[in-house]
Amino acid sequence: MERITSMRFTSAKERYYHFQKTYSDIYHRIPLGMVASYLGITQETLSRIRAEK
Questions:
Q1: In whole angstroms, how large is the CA radius of gyration of the chain?
Q2: Closest listed residue to residue 15, CA positions, set 39, 34, 31, 51
Q3: How many whole angstroms separate alpha carbon 31 and alpha carbon 8?
Q4: Tens digit of pLDDT for each residue in 16-49?
Q5: 2 vs 21, which has greater pLDDT?
Q6: pLDDT at 7 over 90
Q7: This prediction's pTM
Q8: Structural domain span for residue 36
Q9: How far apart are CA 40 and CA 36, in angstroms?
Q10: Which of 34, 31, 30 is nearest to 42 (CA)?
Q11: Is 40 left (phi over 0), alpha (psi -120 to 50) or beta?
Q12: Does residue 3 carry a pLDDT above 70?
């Protein structure tokens, strides 16, 4: 239920940062395409968010 609410009311950047904090132990082992799919964003959007750091 939390994930569905997150999809509707938070930005892609906020979802990504929350994902990083929540799954910090496995974050670096998951392909970016799967992360983008889980967050409900495109790989291009995920790349833009990651490039801002």
A1: 10
A2: 39
A3: 24
A4: 999 999 999 998 999 999 999 999 999 999 999 9
A5: 21
A6: no
A7: 0.78
A8: 2-51
A9: 6
A10: 34
A11: left
A12: no
